[in-house]
Amino acid sequence: MDVQILTFIIVGLSFALYIGIAIWARAGSTNEFYVAGGGVPPVANGMATAADWMSAASFISMAGIISFAGYDGGVYLMGWTGGYVLLALCLAPYLRKFGKFTVPDFIGDRYYSQVARVVAILCAIFICFTYIAGQMRGVGVVFSRFLEVDIETGVYIGMVIVFFYAVLGGMKGITYTQVAQYCVLVFAYLVPAIFISLMMTGHLLPQTGFGATLADGSGTYLLDKLDGLSTELGFAQYTEGSKSMIDVFAITAALMVGTAGLPHVIVRFFTVPRVKDTRISAAWTLVFIAIVYTTAPAVASFARVNMIDTINGKDGSGTVYEEAPQWVKNWERTGLIIFNDKNGDGKMQYSAGKIDDPASANEVKIDRDIMVLANPEIANLPAWVIALVAAGGIAAALSTTAGLLLVISTSVSHDLLKRTIKPDINDKQELLAARLAAMVAIGISAYFGINPPGFVASVVAFAFGLAAASFFPAIIMGIFSKRMNKEGAIAGMVTGIGFTAAYIIYFKFVSPELNAPANWLFGISPEGIGIIGMLVNFIVAAVVMKVTAETPEEVKLMVEGIRNPKGSSAAHAH
Amino acid sequence: MEWLSRSLAKWRYKHLLFSQAELVVLDLELTGLDPKQHEIVSAGWLPIKNMRIEVKDAQHYLNKEVQSLEQSPVYHGIDSAQLASGYSLKTLLLALQQAIHGNVLVGHNVQMDWAFLKTAFQQFNLNVKPALMLDTMQIDKRRVLKQGYPLAQDALTLNACRMRYGLPLHQLHDALGDALATAELLLAQSQAICLGGKCKIADLT
Amino acid sequence: MTAEIQDIFQFVLKQAPFSELPESAASYFSKHIQVVYLSKSNQQDWLQDSQPNLYLIRSGIIDLISAKDEVIGRMSEGDYFGYPSLLTGDAIQNHIEVQKDGLVYILKEHDFDFLRREYKPFEQYFVRAHANRLLASRYKQQSETWSERKISELMTKEAVTITPDASIRDAARLISEHRVSSIMITEHDRLVGVVTDRDLRNRVLAQDRDPCASLAEIMTKKPKHIFENNRVFSALHLMLKHNIHHLPVLNEAYKPLGMLTSTDLLRQQKSDPVQLIGRIYKAQNLLSIKNYAQEIPDLLRQFSYHIEDISLIGKLLSGLTDALTSRLIYLYQQQHGAAPCRFAWICFGSQAREEQTLHSDQDNGLLLPDNIDESAREYFAKLGAFVCEQLNECGIRSCPGNIMASNSECRGTVAQWSERFSRWILSPTPKAMLNCKIYFDMRFIDGASDLYAALSQSLANISKNELFYAAMATDINANSVPIGIFQQFKLEKDKGKHKYLDLKKRGVAIINDVVRLYALKAGVARANTLERLEALNKGALLAKSDINNLKDCWRFLTQLRLKTQINREGLPGNCINPESLSSLEKHQLKEAFYLVKQAQQASAFKFARGSL
């Protein structure tokens, strides 16, 4: 059977599975057995959170970025993992104790101010938009390849499916559906990785294969070969970074602290009934994330070696275009691989540089986002593995996008419309507004999905950066400083997110040609600028706080209540 | 020249709009499937005018001369008292002649019914020829085959066809009930094929 | 000769109003119709002025649209349309939009008129349907049931007033002059007291008081009162609760307008639960309490035939249970000595919500002061055991979940109860949520009300937790409303293969749950669902139209639910087979379920951020 039909079947089956589970869970959750059993076990919750956590960016793009950027790509890995730990250990327990369900509500109450709340809501919406845009790109890549259409159509198709899934399907939030999504996702990620690891290094585990010698009998280490290939083709050495230390640090830190502000993940910590279970399930989540994240560098390296070998040929002189493997043709159709035979020898040659630059010998442009998806094809794996990867990519995107869309639609229709602008609307209108908001959100993100300001992972990195610059300081100061007042928090958030957004927009949209280390502030790239935004936020907040009125007494008491480990709730302070 | 005028009538009918045509929907209750051997137990028919089934003009005739019915009076759920209130086969056929001669005759598997009627009319020397016959079973058979589905067994029973158009399940009662069920089916079919009113009879044949 | 077609006849026979009419009516109808097939492409051909017809839907789904392009209603099998112009002769204004193609039976004006002349109920049915539609279109604010009527419509007597410095004799004269049984005492047009003829007997004659003395000495000061705009059932409820027979009616400015007596109400309701409650409150021994309790089911049955507002039945039963409980507590103290310290007897669940049925079981508890000692605890353990056991013998069954004052977990101090609640709130497991649904509907019955006030204050504080609201909203949404995407019923099946709809679990309970959630959020300290909704009217949490919708749905479903208790066909309790409903009821039921579903979704949306 050909790949396309298999993809339809496997993606279809995975959808049937999600829907089936949703129906089963609805019928089952009211019965006595469920009630007696105390709900969802922490392992399942851990998997569900992992599914929420791992987006199309993690699944599709992270390995791609590592594959192309080598060592530098590792920042995403470190940042996201660290962010999760930070969130689970340092923030979630306090926020839970505060008894607020969303970050804007926390901020609104902690800073006793409607304005602060609205600012926080606007930040949340903005961040979610950016995040979804990255996801839409990922979904588009999957669909464009497997339906053999161009990326634009792929994004449109993804748009429709995501809308139905998130807004009309009502499946979001059913833990077991997300458990299934995680299973599909991890299976789809590991199977090709294991296959390729066995083929290339003889190791079953990709994680060990990554550091092992090649199975071709040459005795060279995989990474040595990759380093050799990279330098040979004019790239930086694979295991050495080209980014400056400060930039690596900034990006990692921005990703880490930005995580705290991502609304759809925090909610997961609140939906586990018992505090003890929250910790256990957070630990499980970390395990489940680690399974994928530790595989990513291996996948990246395998893919890179395989790709260069296939395009440039074993001898490095290039493969004749007419004889190019099928996957090159397939991806060319989507517009994500472009071949420009500059020297007219009919062979493809891949090296550093731009393909429209006559000075460079590079003739092939490869979009990084295709690496994970194309990997099984490049390695000549069976068709069902390729189909499986598509299902995995969609699973990763759906679970995250659905969560984010709900955040946007509830923020717009409930927080902004019902609670702020027009309190007299009825339920029907509120639900309608939510659906409209979701539609608009998808529409806008689809636009950015088609015209992305960067690769999936970098677009997502912007979302984290914005979150880092706005929410993180407000939350931290809200919990750990009794004296922080509303004026300080609002001023901090506004300047933080404003500065960060301006920096990103300037380098990515206004003057992309200036986007080079030489022009960056402190040598920090737009991906990492969130951390400076965060510092700006802290400083502005502290300064404004000094010159404005003091925090009311009851708020101080409330803050003490959160930090007091004995009191199980703020209310006990009464 | 009779065939000529008949074929002319047929042509005219075929080009008539469904909404303007007068149709008679008929169902017979039979003792078996062989016109030579089996008999007509009852006949029910009703007209469709302007795409409305005229229930008040419905006719139902019981043939009190049925031989096999005498041996087994509860056959077809008809008891002897009802049978006594029936009519002679001739009365039945005369009434039917009035209704269908030169008109459009509709039935579910109408060829079968017509085979019985032809034999019976000949027996009484009656010259009855409908101008045109429409078969709701054939209509559905063509539609199903056209969509490329294989025909399952039982896929063309009256109820199976009705289900395809979302019509309520019909209890098989008697000839008249079945005639009504067939008439309803035809309305649904005409709607599905060519939006009813703009339908020509020819579109349905 | 016109033959009758069984298929049509059988169908028509099952539809209202033919199901109530002689068969000849259905027969006439089924012989005189035309059968047509309605679809999008011919929908404009129907409801024409030139030929007014009655239409009866046999299959398919059709929307009725007004001239202003508003959807009046969605109609399906068994629904009629086209009758308003047949009744009034007015021009047809509505048109239809076919949602799902189907068969429709048409009856011509001439034949409709024949049936209308021949069968009065036939005409009444359509006149009523027409009236209902008119009413519905003007948003049903005015319900016809008497208990919903305003006090001012019922009050017959004008206010008979006198000043407090008048003598007792003056008052007695005035009472007999006006042939009333009570008099209101006013000062500057404001009510300050009430004197009834019984007071004249008990407080004057029996005590040898001087008739020339000032009226102020004997009057009941600060009497319970009601406002003219209140509904009759509030009045009934007040009388039941406080065991009084006279209720002064005031206008908004506290000016007395008249007196409402229990006789005024009795005139309306014919049966006399007020008196039964009164008798229970006076019972002197266990035996008479039990005898009175035996009268309850019969009384209720009579009563339920006379009233249309079903919420009253629940109020009555709860009132009766309250009375039984109070009296049992009194009798226990008579026998075993007064309680060693203050206490409050509280109830939960359906009794607290005042929607008890004859099948409801006990949900109650004891609230004790924080400084209680062991011997006192011992006393209350025995009190709890006694009251619960006797209630059980009075026909209010013991709670299978052991939520009873006889259980030591349900006898706690204010701090212990608060601790219990906060455990559930902070660890909202499914089991905790189940408890919350019962315990958060809480009402004070007897004892020291300040203890109860302390507990509800404490609860109001600890329940202010949005994670808890979110958990509740998620829990509410785990229960599904039995209506599909295509507006069809989703029936459940039991082992005996009965198909049914569970009106309590999938309807009333969801409304109760949703309203409880809003009430907690808004800090409404009521337990009754309708009262909670009324109180929610003041805030902006829920729109006015949603509140009205929920009230209507709640009443409708409760009404149907009570019907199932009277006539059922071997179905589980509170369940109904929709086939046994008239087409109008079926339609209303669908509408009600749809609204419940919407409220449920919206709650998930507002409180749990759409984790649907």
Automatic annotation (TrEMBL), chain A:
Subcellular location(s) per record: Membrane
Protein name: Cation/acetate symporter
Any one GO molecular-function label of the UniProt entry: symporter activity
A Pfam family reported for this protein in Swiss-Prot or TrEMBL: SSF
Organism listed in the record: Pseudoalteromonas peptidolytica F12-50-A1
Membrane topology term: Multi-pass membrane protein
Entry GO terms, CC: plasma membrane
Domain of life: Bacteria
From TrEMBL, chain B:
Residue ranges annotated for the Exonuclease domain, each copy included: 22-195
Name this protein carries in UniProt: DNA polymerase III subunit epsilon
CDD domains documented for this protein: DEDDh
A Pfam family of this chain: RNase_T
GO molecular function, one term: 3'-5' exonuclease activity
Keywords, alphabetical: Exonuclease, Hydrolase, Nuclease
Cellular component GO terms held in the UniProt record: cytosol
InterPro entries: Ribonucl_H, RNaseH-like_sf, RNaseH_sf
Single biological process term from Gene Ontology: DNA metabolic process
Originating gene: dnaQ
SUPFAM superfamilies named in the record: Ribonuclease H-like (SSF53098)
UniProtKB/TrEMBL annotation, chain C:
Domain (CBS) ranges: 155-211, 219-276
Keyword Flavoprotein appears in the UniProt entry: no
The organism's place on the tree of life at top rank: Bacteria
Cell cycle among keywords: no
Matches recorded under PROSITE patterns: CBS (PS51371), CNMP_BINDING_3 (PS50042)
Full protein name: CBS domain-containing protein
Ranges for domain Cyclic nucleotide-binding: 49-90
UniProt GO molecular function: [protein-PII] uridylyltransferase activity
Keyword entries, A-Z: CBS domain
Annotated source species: Pseudoalteromonas peptidolytica F12-50-A1
